[in-house]
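Reposting from the mailing list since nobody answered there.

I have sequence plus structure tokens for a pair of proteins and want to know whether others read the tokens the same way I do. The first protein:
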Amino acid sequence: MWQAIKEFCSRPRRLKESGILGMNCRNYAVISACNKRSLYPLVDDKVQTKLLANKIGITTPGLIGVIEHQYDVKNFLEYVKNYSEFVIKPAHGSGGKGVMIIKSYTQDAFTTPSGKQLTFNDIYQHISNILSGLYSLGGKYDVAVIEELVHFSNIFEKYSYQGIPDVRVIVYKGYPAMAMTRLSTAESGGRANLHQGAIGVGLDIQTGNSLRAVQHNVPVSIHPDTKEDLLSIKVPLWREHLEIASKAYEMTDLGYLGADIVLDRDKGPMMLELNARPGLAIQIANGRGLAGVIEKIEKTYPKNLSWKERVDFVLNAH
């Protein structure tokens, strides 16, 4: 299979020589070869992903409820009556679209992390938009997932503006291959979305230490809002992050995937979601190409190891 990747990626030569994995190469020679389309629902449906993860011991944000029908939207306060805060998201959303975080509320007023005040009608309309497919892949009818809010570790508090930072790990045939953390900014509206102005910080796959940072694909070293040194980041519980990513391969049988992980102050690393078509900006954040990493895994990494053995191998590789 690696020969097909090399042949397909042979143009332009400059990208090949630098080990960059391009979009066409990713789609044709990696995703098509490693990910059966019949398996996509395992990661495209956040409810199904959560249930599978919990079965194999991967911690995820607690599920409060699922709203499937328009007639039930008016009753959404019944779902959250025992919770002081919550998150609403589409089950089939992507890129953080359609995610609404409520930090506190009364019967009539709902407060977001930025302090914005929303009305009952605002929440009602947002859930209705989710059900109509406004945020879902392909615009298909969707369901609204209500989850417990993650309380991210204060270790990252000075590196992220308002929003919850996460760690994206690219996994190839069960091996954690490349990682970055995504940090929200004022420009990104408190969301860890690189396209909206969040910062991507490449992480050493063996240590979880920062390597370099970029915003809008331009190298940066200081967070524009918090003024903290982005190159001093060290992700704690790094092995546990890699274990979640490696287990996701057993859970889905997807040969190429992205695992998004958050660090909760009480529960430790938690899997937020999985992606069968992870983007390629992680290469810019790391300053190196994925194609070279994939080639090394194909040629030199042992086959048929358990998830734990794969993590051990990555952490001790030379």
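The second protein, same order (residues first, tokens after):
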Amino acid sequence: MEKLHIPVLLSEVLAGLDPKSGESYLDLTAGYGGHASEILAVTQNYKDSVLVDRDDFAINHLKSKFPSDITIMHQDFYSAVLQLFECGKTFDMILADFGVSSPQLDQGERGFSFKYEAPLDMRMDRRQKLTAADVINKYSERELAELFVKYGEEQKGSAAMFARVIVHHRPITTTKQLADLIQTRIHGYFRHHPATKVFQAVRIEVNKELEQIEQTLPIIPKLLKENGRVGIITFHSLEDRLVKDYFKEASSYGEESELTIITKKPVIADEHELVINPRARSAKLRIAKRN
């Protein structure tokens, strides 16, 4: 599994967070520990560091990978920051790598990708009840169309057509069934599979990804020590816009500002990384510092 996971923008994260020996670290989306391994190799401070993930596959991997004195939390990142804040915890560095992970995409049975025939699932946390099948088969035609526009950034006309054909062909139970149904309604050449935006929208809805980000961002400065650094990686414009706008707001109050923006523009992958890890193409890193 570790070979399947290449931490995105790793050198840029290390340069931006600038870890030092003894510093504490919070990883809100630790995944398979790619970023955490490199940062903790510098700090060597495991007992004051925390790794968070809501995916049980990732949690099991983290427990086998890191020393027992590090805290590992099997929670979504919003629940985790609330708990840490209530406990009065603060950190020198915080990292969040939002979006679906490569291992989740590559585990066909998880239902994140239409490349594999699998049940419509898409849950990052398999303990939750809501699945992609629930969204596709229970939401109204209007709700689906609005979802595809809001979270898939689909055109209204296409969103309405996709919602209509889905409702008329229910029940839909597998990823391939859904993807093929959408593809049959689209003609001509497309750079990306026509179901890409629909899958993105459903995944975001199932995991409440944007809601979680919106709720989490205002708490992050409260978890940072003075001069503490936060790095956030996003993978599509909806996520990046939330981070960009929050950083701008949190740094706009002069001496009263909670944050100072370090990266005036988002950091993106260089050509060398894109050759090794094509999925890094859409990644953007923004870094800020606690005042």
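Reply #1 (J.P.):
I read it the same way you do. Residues 237-250 form the longest helix (14 residues).
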